[in-house]
Design a protein that fits this description.
The chain is an all-alpha fold and about 50 residues long. Helix content is about 50%, strand content about 0%. The chain contains two helices and no strands. The longest helix has 19 residues, at about 20-40. This is Very-short-patch-repair endonuclease. GO terms for molecular function: endonuclease activity. It comes from Sphingobium lignivorans.
């Protein structure tokens, strides 16, 4: 499952985005903060030699 790899799926209704953009952005911000904490100890892979 992708959640074990640090991915998350967030769904918003069009009406939520249009009528409550601040709330949608706050949800995105708080979710990213949680996910970034999970990635803090990981390293970025080296680029391919090809």
């Amino acid at each position: 499952m992708l959640s074990r790899l640090g991915f998350a799926t967030l769904r918003f209704l069009n009406s939520e985005v249009m009528d409550n953009l601040d709330g949608v952005l706050e949800t995105l911000r708080s979710t990213l903060a949680i996910l970034l904490d999970r990635w803090a100890g990981s390293t970025t892979p080296s680029p391919s030699s090809e």
